[in-house]
Amino acid sequence: MAFSSELITNVSASDETNNDILQMLGIDHDGEVQYHVYKTQLDDKSVFCCLSGGVIEDNEIVFTPVGLGAFEALTNVNSNNQDYFAEELHVDNGPIKEQVEEILQRVPENAKVCFLGDITGELKEDIGKIFNLALS
Questions:
Q1: Which of 1, 3, 5 is nearest to 136 (CA)?
Q2: What pLDDT does residue 31 have?
Q3: Local confidence band at 134 (pLDDT 50, 70, 90 cut-offs)
Q4: Which of 46, 116, 120 is nearest to 86 (CA)?
Q5: What integer pLDDT is reported at residue 129 of this predicted model?
Q6: Which residues are bridge partners to 84 per DSSP?
Q7: How far apart (Å, rounded) are the C-alpha atoms in residues 70 and 37?
């Protein structure tokens, strides 16, 4: 199975979201804010993905502030497919790479997939091996 990903650098969240996140983090920054949003190839299929901190509780997504920014940036990707999927990743569910590949196999071409979880914690090592530039 051929898998590759490329960071998309021309999308971001809204100015309001970016400003709220930067203020919350105590960061003084002018210009674009980059999130982990990728164009991913799995064999012959292209899918757009983001890495978002958060969980799914009672069928509701609870994002971290930066996770919400990443999801919002994903929504700003131009695609001829407006299908969105939110998928929570857990180390207890088996190898993360296998979970990601299984999810990407079942979504349609050019879909947008938000991968949720403890991105900077328990998933950090595995996610960094799967997505280029992720948390390195």
A1: 5
A2: 82
A3: very low
A4: 116
A5: 87
A6: 112
A7: 7
* CA 128 – CA 78 distance, rounded (Å): 25
Nearest in space to 91 (alpha carbons), one of 66, 68, 124: 124
Residues recorded for the chain: 136
Six-digit token pair at 61? 């997504």
Closest among 131, 107, 102, 123 to 53, alpha carbons compared: 123
The reported pTM is: 0.91
Coil, strand or helix at 46? strand
The C-alpha atoms of residue 38 and residue 97 are separated, in whole angstroms, by 15
Give every CB contact of residue 63 below 8 A, 6+ residues apart in sequence: 52, 53, 54, 71, 116
62: pLDDT strictly greater than 70: yes
Q: Which helix (H) or strand (E) holds 6?
A: strand 3-7
> C-alpha angle with apex 75: 72 to 77, nearest 5 degrees?
120
